[in-house]
User: Which sequence fits this backbone?
C-alpha cells in the first residue's frame, strides 16, 4: 500500500535526481531509500527512474507521477491550512496578494482593520502584477487577492470592492497642465506610456477602447509593469498616460493628474479560487468591502 512517506521519498529523489543527496535531506540512509523507491515502483507497476546512465533521470511515467503527486501535496497543504481555521474564519492562515496601486488607497486600511479584528489569523501579504496574481490564485499559492478583475474568471469567484475612473497623468510642463479636465482626444498626438497587455489586460483594453472612442489609437512608446513606474516616467517627460485615480496619492512634483471627460471605470475586486475553502477568505472579503465603505466621504 502506498503511504504518504513513499510519495515524499519519491518527490525528494525526483527533485534532486540523486539518491545520496535525497537520503541526506530525508535524514535516512541511502539503502533503505533505494528499497522504498523500488517497492513503490513495484506497487505502481512502472519504472519511475532511469538508472541506466551515470545520472538518474525521471522516466515518462515518473514525470507524470511527479505532476500528479504535486496535486496531492497541494491538497494536503490546503487541508492543513483549513483545519487550523475555524468555520467562522476567525483563526488560521491567509495568504493575500495585492497589486501595487491598491497600496495607495485601500490596502493599508484593510490590513490594519483585518489584523485588529482577527488577530489569530496569520496573514501574509505579497505584491504582484495582476496577471501573475490571478495565476497564483488559480493554483492556490495565494488564497485571496485585491486586483483588477481578470479576463478569465471561470475558476475564480469575486466580490467587487470599488470602481475608480481612469485619469490622465501629464508632465508638469505639458500644454494641458493648466486645464481642470481634459478629453482623451486632446492627447491623440502625444506619446503614451502604458502597462503591457499581458500584465493587466483589463486596464490595457480599457485605455485602448477609450482612446479609440475618441478617434485615435494611442501611440505607445514605452511599456512598464507597474503603475508607479509609469507615473515616474511621465514625470521625466517621456510621455503621457492614463492611470487609475488612486495613483494621485503619489504626489510627485513632476506630474499633474487631470480628470478625463467621460472617464472609463476600472473595477477592483477581492478574487479567490472557487475551490479554495479557507474560511478566512470570507472574513477578509467582508472586511475589504466594509473598510472601503468607511473610507468614503461622509462615512467616517
Assistant:
Amino acid at each position: 500500500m502506498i503511504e504518504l512517506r513513499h510519495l515524499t521519498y519519491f518527490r525528494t529523489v525526483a527533485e534532486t535526481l540523486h539518491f545520496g543527496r535525497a537520503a541526506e535531506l530525508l535524514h535516512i540512509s541511502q539503502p533503505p531509500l533505494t528499497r522504498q523507491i523500488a517497492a513503490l515502483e513495484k506497487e505502481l507497476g512502472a519504472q519511475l527512474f532511469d538508472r541506466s546512465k551515470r545520472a538518474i533521470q525521471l522516466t515518462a511515467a515518473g514525470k507524470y507521477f511527479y505532476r500528479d503527486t504535486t496535486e496531492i501535496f497541494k491538497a494536503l497543504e490546503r487541508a492543513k491550512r483549513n483545519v487550523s481555521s475555524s468555520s467562522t474564519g476567525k483563526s488560521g492562515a491567509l495568504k493575500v496578494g495585492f497589486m501595487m496601486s491598491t497600496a495607495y488607497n485601500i490596502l493599508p486600511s484593510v490590513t490594519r482593520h483585518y489584523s485588529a479584528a482577527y488577530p489569530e489569523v496569520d496573514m501574509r501579504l505579497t505584491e504582484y502584477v495582476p496577471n501573475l496574481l490571478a495565476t497564483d490564485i488559480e493554483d492556490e499559492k495565494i488564497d485571496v487577492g485585491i486586483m483588477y478583475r481578470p479576463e478569465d474568471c471561470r475558476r475564480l469567484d469575486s466580490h467587487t470592492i470599488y470602481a475608480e475612473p481612469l485619469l490622465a497623468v501629464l508632465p508638469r510642463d505639458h500644454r494641458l497642465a493648466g486645464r481642470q479636465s481634459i478629453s482623451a482626444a486632446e492627447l491623440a498626438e502625444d506619446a503614451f506610456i502604458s502597462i503591457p497587455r499581458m500584465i493587466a489586460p483589463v486596464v490595457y483594453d480599457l485605455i485602448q477602447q477609450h482612446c479609440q472612442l475618441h478617434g485615435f489609437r494611442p501611440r505607445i512608446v514605452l511599456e512598464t509593469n507597474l503603475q508607479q513606474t509609469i507615473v515616474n516616467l511621465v514625470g521625466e517627460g517621456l510621455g503621457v498616460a492614463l492611470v487609475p485615480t488612486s495613483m494621485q496619492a503619489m504626489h510627485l512634483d513632476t506630474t499633474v493628474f487631470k480628470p478625463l471627460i467621460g472617464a472609463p471605470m476600472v473595477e477592483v475586486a477581492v478574487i479567490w479560487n472557487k475551490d479554495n475553502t479557507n474560511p478566512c477568505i470570507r472574513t477578509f472579503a467582508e472586511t475589504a468591502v466594509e473598510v472601503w465603505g468607511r473610507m468614503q466621504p461622509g462615512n467616517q
Summary: The chain has a mean pLDDT of 91. The longest strand covers residues 156-171.
